[in-house]
Amino acid sequence: MVKPTQSSPDSSPRAVPAVTRGIAILRFLARSAEPVGVNAIARAVDIIPSTCLHILRALVAEEMVSVDPVTKGYALDAGVVTLARSALRQDGFAKLVQDDLDRIAARFGITAIGVRVIGLQHMIVVGISRSDMTLRIQVDVGSRFPALISATGRCLAAFGGYDERAIKAGFEALRWDDAPRYPVWRKEVDATHRTGIGIDAGNYIRGITIMAAPVLGIEGQMTHGVVAVGLSEQIRHVGRDAVGAELRAAAERVTAQLGGAFNAGQATA
């Protein structure tokens, strides 16, 4: 008798309706700006209301979803956040980069962050190290921000491999404290490609300088980033070149460990 191979139909994964529907409900609630009733949820995910209610009750019992006792509206609950943060902390990149983040934060007295790129939509903080200084930038694992914003956005535009039209459309949707004009920003993106370091000097948040270096995947495109955040005067005092060198060294090391490849245009000095 021949044993089934991995390509055999018997070994292929089969859909579990309850699980599929539960995930669909969670994703729908994640996109909703306010609590939603059972009927609206059922219509959105294309299941009958009674089935939707049974799944919602199970999700409430597991603290994945909460329900308002007055309005009967459903929304994501804290259990989802706990799971998400646990998953992010287990990210292979996060483990590889943590020592670098700790070293950068301690050496320069700034906040050092590791981020994961989610297309042109957003980036998620997966690792962080804070200095012992009294004044620190508040950000947490799981924090999400627009992909093209700030220094990380310049890195993504330089090393993401995206079409120029898509980049410009994404740029025009951003909100800055002091928004740069697109031609100026585009020149800064070109500089980022040459040096391997993106710099945002107060555009995203006034008085704050953010610097970033890209971690690249096997096709030479940005998958993660190593970021430094501090008061502009503080970054000036410790030296942009010194911070940039540490960020680039960390990004290159993690890129190599993850099996990535650097683009020819990226500086290595």
What would a concise description of this structure say?
By secondary structure, the protein is α+β, with helices and mostly antiparallel strands. The chain folds into two domains: 15-80, Winged helix-like DNA-binding domain superfamily/Winged helix DNA-binding domain (Arc Repressor Mutant, subunit A, Orthogonal Bundle); 87-257, GAF domain (Beta-Lactamase). Helices cover 46% and strands 18% of the residues.
Overview of this protein structure:
- This protein is of the alpha+beta class.
- The protein has two domains: 15-80, Orthogonal Bundle (Arc Repressor Mutant, subunit A); 87-257, GAF domain (Beta-Lactamase).
- Helices cover 46% and strands 18% of the residues.
- It has ten helices and eight strands.
- The chain has helices spanning 17-31, 38-45, 49-61, 78-89, 92-108, 150-159, 164-172, 182-195, 232-238, 240-257, and strands at residues 65-67, 74-76, 111-118, 122-129, 144-146, 198-201, 208-216, 222-231.
- It has a six-stranded antiparallel β-sheet with strand order 5-4-3-8-7-6, sandwiched between helices. Strands 1-2 form a two-stranded antiparallel sheet.
- β7 (208-216) and β8 (222-231) form a beta hairpin.
